[in-house]
Design brief:
- There is one protein chain.
- By secondary structure, the chain is mostly helical.
- The chain has one domain (3-167): dinb family like domain (Four Helix Bundle (Hemerythrin (Met), subunit A), Up-down Bundle).
- Helices cover 64% and strands 5% of the residues.
- The chain has seven helices and two strands.
- It has a two-stranded antiparallel ribbon.
- It is globular.
- Pfam families: DUF1572.
- InterPro entries: DinB/YfiT-like, DUF1572.
- It comes from Paenibacillus hemerocallicola.
Length: 168
């Protein structure tokens, strides 16, 4: 397998795993819990999911595919952001669907095309890889917030702890 094929497979598998875990965590929480923030200046899970969608719209839809950039990054973190579980799950599906679409459509040559991101030229491959890293970073925050709220009722999204494995 060449670098393009290997990278495409890796990104698809990594993002599928992140999507599965994010969906599983969100599915355990109520609307109130999804919009809860530990402190006034902190983000809720809803903020994080809205932010991930905004990032992917900007980087993939606008940056790679040339659609208008309609992102308002600051609004993604406002305390007024409130979303119900159905909307957040739809956002996760939409966001990861955009990445899948990019992986399906882009040719090896297009992966090497450069585009401006934060005052520097970046390859499309770097943008896709950064999206996967960004998802992973925020998945960690989402899992932490879910565990913090659910405590012993939290069902792991990865390898069950011995106590959880015995209960299943």
């Amino acid at each position: 397998m060449d670098f393009y094929g290997l990278s495409k497979t890796y990104l698809r598998q990594k993002c599928a795993e992140i999507r599965k875990r994010m969906t599983k965590a969100v599915g355990q929480l109520s609307d109130r819990q999804l919009n809860w923030r530990p402190d006034e200046g902190d983000n809720s899970i809803a903020n994080l999911i809205v932010h991930i969608e905004g990032n992917v719209r900007q980087r993939i839809s606008a940056g790679i595919f040339g659609e208008p950039d309609i992102r308002d990054r600051e609004s993604e973190f406002e305390t007024s952001v409130y979303s119900d579980k159905a909307r957040l799950l739809a956002s996760i599906d939409y966001t990861f669907g955009l990445l899948d679409e990019a992986l399906d459509k882009l040719t090896p040559e297009e992966w090497l095309r450069t585009m401006p991101v934060r005052d520097r030229e970046t390859t499309v491959f770097e943008v896709l890889n950064q999206c996967a890293n960004h998802f992973s970073e925020h998945l960690g925050q989402i899992l932490y917030l879910a565990k913090h709220q659910l405590k012993e009722n939290y069902v792991t999204t990865s390898i069950p702890r011995p106590k959880q494995a015995d209960a299943e």
